[in-house]
From TrEMBL:
Residues 71-117 form the VWFA domain. Transmembrane segments: none annotated. It comes from Rotaria sordida. This is VWFA domain-containing protein. It comes from the Eukaryota.
Length: 117
């Protein structure tokens, strides 16, 4: 749990770095939200909402042969929910990724795949 100390003014950005003890271990999280009968947000007869999230970080082998071809695919959501600053942030992230990528141009292929409405 993270708590702020009393009477501390946050007047600049701070970085909270979290490192997982076992990053490659799959994790699942399930949450249930029970809505009151008086709630105006319920659109069905079911007053309980559930959400489930599965998180995993695959292990990738480090290539030892520099002659092997590498393909990197950047998948970007361009649906209506990504309007405005969200799309700009995705573009900035792709640009940051590409400018910091140290690869052999002859054997590396980069593709952008978009999906959405």
């Amino acid at each position: 749990m993270v708590e702020l100390v009393d009477n501390v003014l946050i007047d600049r950005d701070f970085i909270l770095a979290i490192t997982l003890k076992s990053a490659n271990l799959p994790r699942i999280s399930n949450e249930t939200l029970t809505l009151d009968d008086d709630s105006n947000t319920t659109t069905s007869n079911n007053h309980d909402s559930q959400a489930c999230m599965l998180t995993f970080y695959p292990r990738f082998e480090i290539l030892t042969n520099s002659n092997e071809q590498i393909e990197i695919i950047f998948i970007v959501d361009v649906s209506n929910s990504m309007d405005g600053s969200h799309v700009q942030q995705a573009k900035q992230l792709a640009h940051l990724f590409l400018t910091n990528l140290e690869v052999d141009d002859k054997n590396t292929y980069f593709n952008v795949v978009t999906f959405g409405s």
